[in-house]
């Protein structure tokens, strides 16, 4: 105890070195490394060379996907950890350390909708255009199943309008079945500034009993997974683009097959999307038939999205052109509905007076 107080050493340390000295003599007083020495397996240099070659072949694959590919190639061997793979890539100059960003946590107004199985939510968007070597403009339409990450469509449209997208959707609905909901960004040809942001295409989805979801970041609905897929698509096929239009379309087909059948995804347990997706072919369902109460007025919307009610013209929405809407009489006017969607409210004592006099 006196020696411990003199040299300012705790009793546990003094007794530890005393035991070592009695057992080993002076060599027992030398410093030792903490824990057992880490020993690399004999095959780890081979793994490192294989990972470097695989990374050069697939530059967009990260450490987790490279480790998944290593497990497929060496199924019966002990694998290095994910952090070890990251260190190897950084030491070989094949990746850079991620930059730390400041995290800002925002309060969520409502819970996110999640696709828990295939054919539950489809995400649709137009990829940004590029020009090939022969100056052909390529702007592919991409449709992906959110639950399985399976790309259903990746091909340019003949025309950038809702009718061209409708032809593609009709083809996919017959081949894979109708999803429960379709999620898109706030842009043409999927969205407009009319009631409920519906356009003729999204209204057609609604009439097929398919939920329509537009991106609403304040409400927790986003299309970030689809945009991330676009970033990978652009890096693999459009930087730089092909020399001709035919060669660029061939690139898109090859990349889509690779994405669906070979590329692992962290969100589905490191498996390719083809192992998760299940299609259910079915005929196209019948369109929704709007029903109204007997005492409501019925008006057909003209091609300009307007109706005539008691001698006056009222705007309803271009998306409802050619359809019949119901006008519910109220105390101060009318409420215009399409099925269960309230489109607009028409206030006017003159209209009400003419209605009562008729």
Cα-to-Cα separation, first versus last residue:
112 Å
Radius of gyration: 32 Å
CATH H-level superfamily title of the largest domain: Ribonuclease H-like superfamily/Ribonuclease H
Instruction: Could you tell me the CATH topology label of the largest domain.
Output: Nucleotidyltransferase, domain 5
Describe this structure in words.
The chain is an alpha+beta fold. 33% of the residues lie in helices and 17% in strands. The protein folds into four domains: 1-29, no CATH class; 44-91, Arc Repressor Mutant, subunit A; 121-275, 2-Layer Sandwich (Nucleotidyltransferase, domain 5), CATH 3.30.420.10; 297-357, no CATH class. The chain is built from ten helices and 13 strands. The strands form four sheets. The protein has a five-stranded mixed β-sheet with strand order 5-4-1-6-7. The protein has a four-stranded antiparallel β-sheet with strand order 8-11-12-13. Helix 4 (63-73) crosses helix 5. The termini are far apart.
């Amino acid at each position: 105890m006196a020696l411990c107080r003199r040299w300012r050493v705790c009793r546990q340390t003094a007794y530890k070195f005393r035991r070592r000295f009695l057992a080993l003599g002076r060599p027992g007083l030398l410093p030792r490394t903490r824990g057992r020495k880490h020993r690399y397996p004999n095959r780890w240099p081979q793994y490192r060379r294989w990972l470097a070659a695989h990374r050069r072949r697939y530059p967009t694959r990260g450490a987790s996907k490279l480790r998944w590919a290593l497990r497929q190639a060496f199924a019966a061997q002990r694998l290095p950890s994910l952090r070890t793979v990251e260190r190897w890539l950084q030491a070989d100059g094949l990746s850079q350390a991620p930059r730390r960003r400041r995290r800002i946590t925002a309060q969520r107004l409502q819970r996110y909708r999640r696709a828990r199985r295939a054919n539950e939510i489809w995400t649709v968007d137009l990829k940004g255009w590029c020009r090939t070597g022969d100056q052909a403009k390529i702007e592919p339409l991409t449709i992906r199943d959110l639950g399985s990450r399976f790309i259903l469509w990746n091909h340019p449209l003949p025309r950038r309008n809702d009718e061209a997208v409708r032809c593609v959707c009709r083809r996919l609905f017959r081949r894979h079945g109708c999803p429960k909901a379709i999620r898109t960004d706030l842009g043409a040809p999927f969205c407009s500034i009319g009631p409920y942001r519906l356009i003729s295409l999204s209204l057609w989805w609604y009439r097929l009993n398919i939920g329509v979801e537009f991106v609403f970041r304040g409400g927790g609905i986003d299309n970030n997974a689809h945009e991330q897929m676009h970033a990978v698509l652009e890096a693999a096929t459009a930087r730089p683009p092909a020399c001709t239009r035919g060669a660029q379309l061939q690139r898109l087909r090859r990349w889509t097959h690779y994405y669906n059948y070979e590329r692992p995804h962290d969100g589905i347990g490191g498996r390719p999307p083809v192992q998760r997706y299940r299609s259910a072919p079915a005929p196209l369902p019948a369109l929704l038939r709007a029903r109204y109460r007997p005492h409501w007025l019925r008006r057909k919307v003209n091609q300009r999205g307007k109706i005539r009610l008691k001698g006056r013209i009222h705007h309803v929405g271009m998306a409802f052109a050619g359809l019949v809407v119901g006008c519910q009489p109220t105390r101060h006017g009318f409420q215009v509905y399409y099925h269960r969607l309230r489109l607009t409210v028409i206030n006017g004592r003159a209209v009400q007076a003419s209605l009562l006099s008729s």
